[in-house]
Amino acid sequence: MGNRFLRLAVIYVLIGITMGIVMAASHDYTRRPVHAHVNLLGWASMALFGLWYRSAPAAGETRLAKLHFWIHNIALPIQMATLTMYVYENKAIEPVLALASIVMGIGFILFAINLWKHTGD
Ligand code: HEM
Ligand code: HEM
Asked: Where are the domains of the chain?
């Protein structure tokens, strides 16, 4: 699971820095929270997950790791798309954004459980 996380993480950072450059060039910072979380949930968090799963291959092969991978990678694009709609004043989308964020949070809980289980004492 480590390599899968890392491969997607580098794609997210390419998207994230492109958004940063476009934002800086246009002086339009409306999408700042989207840029921030594409980079932080897509790049920083996923790269950390990937590096840790590579350091603990047994943990990376569990059903918990697979579930974590899919939850994170299904929730993230929905969360970023609905956050973009939200910052462009589509406030009605908020429940979907909230749900995707909660699902994302559940993914982090699964990761925490896996890490605690596999880090011994
Ligand atoms: C070429 C690369 C990047 C460019 C050009 C860029 C550009 C920007 C710009 C223009 C802003 C808005 C600043 C403002 O509102 O005053 C911003 C905010 C932010 N960026 Fe980037 N960024 C880049 C890469 C990254 C990366 C790699 C990360 C995280 C790993 C990151 C995390 C953030 C965060 C967290 C904020 C919000 C900061 C705040 O709330 O003050 N950025 N970035
Ligand atoms: C389910 C996951 C997450 C949710 C729902 C969430 C939610 C939020 C919200 C509501 C804000 C305030 C946005 C604003 O006022 O513009 C925020 C800002 C921020 N969050 Fe998160 N966050 C999550 C994960 C993370 C993670 C994992 C990191 C770091 C690795 C992070 C770092 C930040 C930073 C640096 C800011 C300030 C950026 C800005 O001003 O745009 N967040 N987050």
From this structure: 2-118
